[in-house]
Amino acid sequence: MGLTSILRGFAVMLFVISAAMLAPLALALISGGNSGPYLFGAAAALIAGAGAYVASLGRPPPADFRGALVIILLWWMVVPVFAAAPFAMSGMSFADAYFETVSAMTTTGGWLSNEGAIATADGALWRAELQWLGGLGSLAIAAAIFIRPAFIGIDTLLPPFSRGASNSFLRPLRNAVISFASVYAIMTMLAFSTIALAGAPLLDSVIMAMSTAASGGFIPDVDGIGAYPRPVALAMFPFIVLGGANFVLIARIMRGMRERVRDVETGAYLLILVWVGVLFWLTAGAGNLLLLGPQIFNAASLLSTNGYTIGEAPPLTVAMVTAIIGGAAVSTAGGFKILRWLVIMRRAREELRRLIIPRAVFGVRRVANELGVWMHFIVFTMTLAILVVSLSIGGHHFDVAAAAATAALSNTGPLLYLAEGGGEGYAIFSEPLRWLLLIGMILGRLEAAVALALFNRAFWRS
Prior knowledge:
The chain is mainly alpha-helical. It has helices spanning 3-20, 22-31, 36-55, 65-83, 85-88, 94-105, 114-117, 121-146, 149-152, 170-197, 202-213, 230-244, 247-254, 265-285, 292-303, 316-325, 338-356, 371-393, 398-409, 431-443, 448-453, 457-461.
């Protein structure tokens, strides 16, 4: 499994969290806020990271797939314990602080209270930073580990980094972070500059740029995007679209690299975006072209799993389906992923052809490896059903239960606000139900085959 490599990776993650706390710490000092929680949290993460690093001294052996899975679980389950320290020391219970942190790091953006999330400038900045780091982690994990034919069904764009030997998974994960970090940071800086020039305050521009790059859906104002000048939404739109696009393609284009594999996902993503936008427009008032722009924006926001909307809110059912579709396979967006839908549609087309003309010869199968796709489809739908039923049994209206379950599993936190009675935030759910939603957020970032492996003894013993 490579325990030494796992400890080394865990130490690096804690060092990153410790360093990230310096920005909200400085902001708290400047604004006269409470800097103690960030100082304590940074020190705790630094000390724990140093301990893990000392324990990892020596030559780290290659880590297999089990080791990579442990690293992933540490990132989304254990690291949030340290990242939640500022929230816990600011008056939240640990359970609430942990919920907010996991929601941020999975880029879900589902807060217990939107007013509470933006109550302090340093708290809002820390949430945005966690989303940004979570988005980078999601990109690296997807490109280095998850996006392979065994999981996604078909070959995808080659990532702009080396995956190394087949029995080493942590090295390509490190390469992915290094390769994507600069492009991800440049995209965030461009978003910040554009949003600030459009008229948003500087700190709000920083928060929205980081959250938009991560598809986190975090707006640091109670009134949402409507609180800002109209050009702000226009400035955010291209970056919302990029948040759901294939980041491998973005990285290769920005570096001037050519790709030999045909990219079918990006075209499908843009086509679905336009189609959903027109569908929203038809329900909002077809014929008025002034309403088309806001609904295209809403389609991009939901498809990229940011989740916030402008203008007339789209129907809840259509919004939930859009969030479930999700963005590209290697993107900060959540959801089922467009590439998987393409595999399913291809399989459906082949089966329909065979039903219509049983004796025909159609040539080589277009989908060579689809078991992982169907496993993910079954686990995704079953998990969604369990969450909806559990929340309904917990005493919540079906619309609220369905919206919250979809929001958690597709990592589209603001989707809850579209349901009647969901505007108060995730504080309407009792603590046991919040833990279920929290599990849904993490499962939304995992492959189904990986999630099933967690409960397989043979996998851990082999």
